[in-house]
Structures are given as C-alpha cells and as structure tokens.
Design brief:
8-stranded parallel beta sheet; 31% helix; alpha/beta
Length: 536
Amino acid sequence: MPADLVFLNGPIYTSRRDEFVEALAVDGEWISFVGGEREVAPHIGPSTRVVDLDDRLLTAGFQDAHVHPGAAGRDMTRVPLSGCVDVTEALAAIGSYAEDNPDHEWIRGSGWLQTWFPGGCPNRALLDTVVPDRPVFLENADGHDGWANSMALELAGIDANTPDPRDGRIERDNGGLPQGTLHEGARYLVMAVMPEDTIDDFRLGIVAAQSYLFSKGITGWQDAHVDEINHRAYRALAADGQLLGRAQGALWWDRHRGLEQIDEMVEMKREALGRYRPIAVKLMLDGIIENFSASMREPYLDGAGDPTANRGIDFIEPGELMEIVTRLDSLGFSCHFHAIGDGAVGHALDAVGTAQAANGVSDNRHHIAHVQVVHPDDISRFAQLGVTANCQPLWACDDEAQTELTRPFLGPERSGWQYPFGRLARSGARLAMGSDWGVSTPDVFEQADVAVWRTHISQADAAPLNPDEAIGAQDALIGFTLGSAYVNHLDDVTGTLEVGKLADLAVMDRNPLAEQRLAETLVDMTVIGGEVVYER
C-alpha cells in the first residue's frame, strides 16, 4: 500500500549509535519503512507526500524529560523578563507592563537573573520606584527565588518579626526588615495571598507552550510540576483533542503535607486520558547553590573560602523520603527527583535503594533531575540502581552564575564534580535530557551544543566547564530521543526510528552532526503520529 508520507535523500538518524538510513515511510500514525531509497519506491503512490531532505537531518521526535509547559505558557502573558539583559531593562519592562495593564490587581511575572544584583538578591525599593501602587511579585529564572515590592510584603504580613519558614529564607537588610528577596519556601508567604491561577490560565498556557515546543522538534515531554489544577487542564485538553503532544505528568509532591496525598495521586494516575498520562511523582529534595539552599554533604564556603555552618536545606527529611519513595515505588510510580547538591543526590539514591530492598527491582524508571554536584562515590550507583540521570545540559558551562555565585562557595574540588555527564555515561548510567523551560530555552540544539563543548556558543573566550564531562553529539541526541522516551515509558513506541513505531519525527534545516557546533540548527518540520504539527 502507498504510504502517506515519505522522506528521501537523508541522512536519517535512527537514534541507534552510528546508524543512518536514506529513506523512511509513514502509513497513518506509524513508521512503515526504514531503509534505502531504492527499497522505498514501492511505498510511493499518487497521493504520497514526498519530502526531499536534501541532506537535512531527520531524527525521532525529541522528548523533553523535565519541562514546565503550563507555567511557561502562562508566563508568556505576564511581565516578560526573560529577554532582558540587565536590571535597567527589567525595570522598564515591569513599568511598561503595569502601565499597559491598569486593571491587573497584581503585577506578576518571572525571568529575572540573580547575576543582575549584588549577592543575587534584588531589593524591594527598586520595584517600588516603578510600581508603587500595586503589589508586585516576580519569580527568578529558575523559580527558586521571588522578588516582591513593599506592598506585596505588607499584604503577606511579612515584617521584621516574621520567622523564616523551615524550607526557605527571608532576605533581610541591616535593620532586620525584609529586603525584598524571598528564597525557596519563603516565596509561598506571598503566593498565598495572590489571586489563584485558574484552569483556563493553565489550559491556554499548555496550548501556547506546545506550539512553541513543536517549533523545536519536541513531540513529547514530562511536565515536572503537575498539581491538581494542571492535571485538570491537561485532561480538559486531552478530552477535546487540543493536546497534540505526548504529555507525561509528574504529580507534584506537596512537602507541607504527608503520605495521605498518595491516595489522591493514585486516583489522578487512573485518570490518564488520550495523550496525557500522569505516571510520575515530582519530589523536590533541595533548592539551588546560588542561594545556598542546595543540600550538600559538606558545608558551603564563605566569601573568604572558609567553611560555614550551612549545608543547605533538605526539603524532605531523608528518613521520610525513604518511606515516601518505598510507598510510591510499590504503587508503580516513577519518582522524578529534583536534586542539585551532592547531599540531595545521595538521599535520592538511598531512597531508591531502600525501595528496591523492600519491593524488589521494578520497571518504574526513577530518575534524578539536574544532578549538578554528584559526589564521586555516587557516580556508579546510578547504573547499579537503574536510576536515570535527567540532565539539563544548558547549564553545564562557565557562565556568570558559576564564577560569581557557585564556584567561590563550593571550592575547587566540588566545582570539579559539576554536571558529570561524561562520568555517568562511562559508568553505564542512562542519560535523559530535559530543558527545565521556562527556566531556560527548550531548544534542543542549543542545549546539546553545551553538552558537547561545555561552553555556550555565545561565550567566545570562555574555558569549558569540566571538559572531561563532555559527551558526543550522538550521545546528546540519543538523550533527547531514546533516553527521554525511556523515562517517559514511551520507548516501546517512540524514541527510535523503526518499523512499527509511532511516526514522531523532527526534520532539521541542516545536518548538525556534520558541523562543528550544533547550536544554530533550526527545525524545519515536526510530525506527531504521522500528522505534521509544525513547518517552518
């Protein structure tokens, strides 16, 4: 039977190492042929659409193993700080947005960078100068810190007498007053008094986000923060056919609650619908190094290089974590851990080991996202326990956040343990790739370029960050295809180009594997289940 869609004149990369073919055919939702151009001829009929690749690369559709589509899409409609280069541009954008939206009760947004401010901490007075008459709350680019103006702090009841929450810190000025920066769990003090997001906010956000992800060749993802409202938004989109991407949900573990929430998660897992499947639970174990909340085995250093008393924060106590993971594992959930510091990474591995001792080894496919600092003793444990390293490769470069807010407070030895993709791969660990968008770009090739070169393409003179941890270009693409399909429990039907698998495909504007740098590659076409969902 003639195929619906045929690609010719490859290269076509199957996501098997060094395996390239010339032609591929699609029949309905499925791949019906993979091989040479001569052999594909019988699949071409009068109604077949034939695409001449003309030496452009075709791969399996990319999957993002750690992304926040609902929030990223929602934030497209709020104060746009992600394109700003410094605090001057940011304040101008905030003021313009407030002026253009006089009916908004709160001014909200995200995307500011800690490197814009001394010590990474913005002051409320800066916001007061541009929006003095309404509350303002802006999350930073990685979503771990908040920046509030005086009115927002007042509405939240935050003053000199407000104690720090267990899982966060209120930055204070020399007089003890709240300075305007709220670290980690302290953000919730303000978020509790803000208007709640609605299902429509997230439904529209997911629709906007998936269109943008399609333009990057991304056909599936794991949403790393699915609470009840996100869950309902995904189900609504799946029910009316608007959800075109393959969305796996990581249900949000509320660290301020207990084991009783597992019953709710079991029910949400049963409510999978269409291309939406809530298969995982997201467990935030710590914060970030830049605000000293990442959980470390040994204390942070101070500005003079001397040890402090601070080892960061364990958002979930290790003993409690073992109990949580053992229960979730017994119920067939995949645990999706956020772990930045070597302490948090070790706690995650310990918890998986405890669960396996209690329940036996399963196919639940637990994975640890971020893996910024991994103690050398823990490298081999990933493969031993079958835990996937869920890597965010864009961060593995020597940028200003490294030089100003990370390396001075880790010291040289621990700085050398950062983003150990190479050692993990050589130890036999499986790598999946994710962007953490909207924290950073979902562009696969910009991320893969850093994984290969350990510098960002914009850093002409920068030295590579821990160059021995670089991986090859094919390894990076396999991480974005088969590796991420694995943690998404979709590798049986996606992730490689094989007859009988779903026709989830991405066509690039060139063959980046034949070029020195990958970062400038664009996506020309994205196909999901045989349907073209994006063409440049």
